[in-house]
Amino acid sequence: AEIDAAARRGDTARALALLESRGDHHRLSGEPDAALADARAAAELAPQDAAARFRLAVARLEAGGEDYQALMDLRAAKYLGLSMDAEVVDQWMRRAQNWRDRPERKNHYRTLGVPIDASPEAMKQAYRQAALRWHPDKPGGDTERFQAAQAAWEVLGDEARRRAYDFGGPQAGLAAEAAASRAPRRRGRSQGPGQVEGQGAGQGRSRSSRHCARDPGPIPQSPFVHPSHYRKADEGSRRRGVSYGGERAR
C-alpha cells in the first residue's frame, strides 16, 4: 500500500526504495520469484533507471528461465550509465551469456535458495539446511530434492567448479556437475560439504576441474546488502546508483 501511495503522489524515488528493500528481503530469504516481481515493478516504474534495470537482470538470473532478457537488461543498464565498476558489470554479463548458451543447466542457486553472490559460508549453511530438511529418512523427506541439493553443493561448494558453472570453463567441471546429479545416494547417510560419497574430504575432484580456462576472479560482492548511494547526473538531478565492490561478500 505504501508503495502504491508513493507512486500515485509521484514520489518515484520513495517507491523505488521500498520496492528494492522488499526485493532484497525476498532475495536473501530464498524467494527469487517474489524478488523478480518487485524488480519488474521497479523497472516498469522507472524504465530509464540504470540501477533498476541491473536489479531486474540479477532477479531474472536468480529466478531462472530469462537469461537472454537478463543479458539485455545488463546491456541497457550499462548504456544508461550504471554507477558500478565496469569489470564487475562485465562479470555479470559473462555469466548471463554463459547461462543463455546453456539452457539445459540446472539452477543450483535456486535449488539451495541463495543469491548468486552468496558467500561460501552462506552457501554451506543453505546446503546443510536443505540436506536436513529433505533427507529421505526424515519425516517429510524428499529423495529427489535431497539429491538436487547434493548436486548443487558439489558445484557451488567448490570455488573452481562454481566459477566454471557461472562463467564457463573446462568440460571437466561441467562433467562433475552432471555426474553429481546422477550419482546414486545411500539412504541414511548424508555427505559432508564438498565430499563425494565413498571418498574422503577433498578427494574426487579432477585436476582440470580446479582451474577455469578463463578465470574471472573472485565472485563479486552483492550490491543488495549495502545501502545504495546517490550520484549527480550532468543536469544536476540525482540518479540512483548501486555500490558494488569487487570483493566477495563475507
Automatic annotation (TrEMBL):
Region annotation Disordered: where it falls in the sequence: 175-250
Q: InterPro entries in the record, alphabetically? A: DjlA_DnaK_co-chaperone, DnaJ_domain, DnaJ_domain_CS, J_dom_sf, TPR-like_helical_dom_sf
Q: Which SMART domains match?
A: DnaJ (SM00271)
The residue ranges of the J domain are 107-169
SUPFAM superfamilies, alphabetized? Chaperone J-domain (SSF46565), TPR-like (SSF48452)
Which domain of life does the protein's organism represent? Eukaryota
What name appears for this protein in its UniProt entry?
J domain-containing protein
